[in-house]
Task: structure prediction
Amino acid sequence: MNRKIITIISLQAILIITMFWVIVFYGKDEYEAYTREQEEEIENPSRVTTEHGATIVTLNAEARQQSDIQLGKARPAQQSARLPALGTVLAIDGLIELRTRYMASRADAQQTQASLQNTRQEYERLQQLNQDDQNVSIRAVMAAEALYKTDLAKLQAANTASRNAEDALRQQWGATLATEATKDRSALLDALLSYREVLIRITLPFDAPEPSAGSHLSLTPTGSSGQAVQASFVSIAPVSDAGLAGKTYFYRASASALRSGMRVSASLTTSQAHSGMLVPASAVVWYGGKPWVYIQTAPDKFKRLSIEGAAEAENGWFVAGVLQQDSVIVVSGVQLLLSEELRYQIKNENED
Result:
């Protein structure tokens, strides 16, 4: 009995020793990783803190130099004010139909005019012969007169129809397009009919200045982030756009990116200038669908600042009412600061 107990105790001891070494063997890597993590946390304290509700990234000069983070200043600038506008790419079926009606009426008038000239001459000749000893009968004179008056009535009707078509063109499409539509050949109409260009009705605010000949605006299909298209002013649009309040105008633009029925967003440059600061493109970082810059709040401290509403300029971004002339911003390495800030936020979320 004692031997059995001794044997069982020995086996249990061997099993416990074996399990201990198995745990040590498999737990060694995790222990070393944990130790390294603790050492890293001790060696690399967080560079991100919160001050007065704002997230601050702290980087001394040495750290900035190692990460190639450079500082600079935005420079004062002025930019012409831009007015937002909306519009619609128009189908020109109605313009084509009215042009066809006008051309058909004009052709009828020209044809009737030629016939009228002959019937008038014939009527006058027979009338003269009848007066000269009644060389022709009065019946023949009356028949010639009837043909002459018929052609005269046809001419008047054709002229009325062409005038009505021209008036309808002017009422619906404006004087400029009406003039182009009543020409035998029109470069503008050819471009629209061949779909090299499209016609756009733009609705500008009521207080917007009147566009002038040769003026342009930039537009993009609503909801698109593609490159803006330049549109040229054509004329005043006499018909408003349903659902949009404002003054309407016709513009023409390349058809490459535009389709009939599309809604477009436009931006019109005005003569009024706004003062602000020009921020280099390298200083802007995008996060959450908005543009941001990092501004220096102390020698080694930086805060992320929204510049939502900034306008893209030739050499960067035009910012109004956000930065001061003495504001120091990060102009290179801004993505590293954002990464450091986001890493801090993720760590805090995991700890919570």
The CA atoms of residues 21 and 27 lie 10 Å apart. The two ends are 58 Å apart (CA to CA). The first strand starts at residue 48 and ends at 51.
